[in-house]
Amino acid sequence: MIKKITLIFTILTSMLFSQEKISIDELLKSNFDNLDIKIEKKSLILTKEDVKNIQTLANTKVGSKIVRYYKVTKNEEILGNAILLKQRIRTKNAAILYIVDANKSMLSTEIVSFKEPSEYKPNKEWTEVLNGKTSEDTLMAGKDIPTISGATLSARAISDAARLALAIVEQKL
């Protein structure tokens, strides 16, 4: 009996927390409307001075000194960058891809992985609020970014990471 309950619980839990696989290359191609773009996967190691400057600009803490980003080009012209950041939401992490155009303006925010229950995951309409924002914008949940009823921590974490992504692009890319 206990084995059956455990099995049912395991199946239900895996269904509740299941993740659809999203290709970062496909996300970038769809956001830059071009299949002929070149995508380079890169890493950036931040110095102590970089961390200090980025934290000051973003008004939030840098979670890791190693930043994964993707440089998007076409015919040697930089179209933009995508910053992949891991952010703790409540007790689990989410991976969010912030796509920034060549003018250092947020083009799109894509939640690549979300380990919290799905009711805490912001919908596409909410993430689109970040589109067009730059490091000049406040991007504070509850101020110029709306909170999400029942998912305030998600809104706060994703908007904090958006400020980090824009600060990294502004300072380092």
Automatic annotation (TrEMBL):
What InterPro entries has UniProt attached to this entry?
FMN-bd (IPR007329), Ion_transpt_RnfG/RsxG (IPR010209)
One family from Pfam that matches here is FMN_bind
Could you tell me which residue ranges the FMN-binding domain spans? 100-166
Q: Which UniProt keywords apply?
A: Electron transport, Flavoprotein, FMN, Phosphoprotein, Transport
Task: Indicate yes or no for the key word Nuclease.
Answer: no
What is one term from the GO cellular component aspect held by the record? plasma membrane
Write one Gene Ontology MF term: FMN binding
Q: Name one GO biological process term.
A: electron transport chain
The organism's superkingdom is given as: Bacteria
Question: Record's PANTHER family?
Answer: ION-TRANSLOCATING OXIDOREDUCTASE COMPLEX SUBUNIT G
* Protein's name according to its UniProt entry: FMN-binding domain-containing protein
Question: What is the source species?
Answer: uncultured Sulfurovum sp
